[in-house]
Each structure stands twice: as structure tokens, then as C-alpha cells.
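Hi F.,

I've been meaning to write this up properly since the lab meeting, where we talked about keeping a consistent format for the predictions we share between groups. The idea is simple: the sequence comes first, exactly as it goes in, then the C-alpha cells exactly as they come out, then a line or two of notes. No screenshots and no reformatting. I'm using this chain as the first example so we have something concrete to point to.
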Amino acid sequence: MCLAVPMQVAEILAGTAVCEVDGVRREASLMMLDDVAVGDYVLIHAGFAIEKIDPVEAEKTLEIFRQVLDAGGGIDT
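Output, unedited:
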């Protein structure tokens, strides 16, 4: 199963986006997308921004992820 995580673009440096969600920052290649700007939401998968997404949909998805994590779903401890 593959999972792409919505993240907000905080910086763009030479074709690489520095993206952030909930204080976590990751670098992602922008080679698969055009016209990405700081502040946009993108789906990140395997180190690549694979799709630009609507901010409202991104927040809805992130809220579902947070609920699952808060409930301990999918995490073996």
C-alpha cells in the first residue's frame, strides 16, 4: 500500500521543496510538477511532490491522519 502525505511548501530551493506539516519538515523533489509556489499544498510520496492539492482537502486529510494517530491506529508499540 502506498501513502502520500499532504504537506505545505515552506521554501523552494533549486527544484526542491522544503515542505512542512505539524512542525515536521522534509525535502521533496518538484521534478514531477510545474507551477508550485510557497504556501501551496502538495502530496508527498517517496521524496517527490506528486500532485498539487486544494488547501481545504489537504487539511481534511491531515485531520483524519491526526485522528488515526491519536487513536493509536496502525502503530505497533
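Notes:
The chain has a mean pLDDT of 91.
The two ends are 21 Å apart (CA to CA).

If this format works for you, I'll send the rest the same way.

G.
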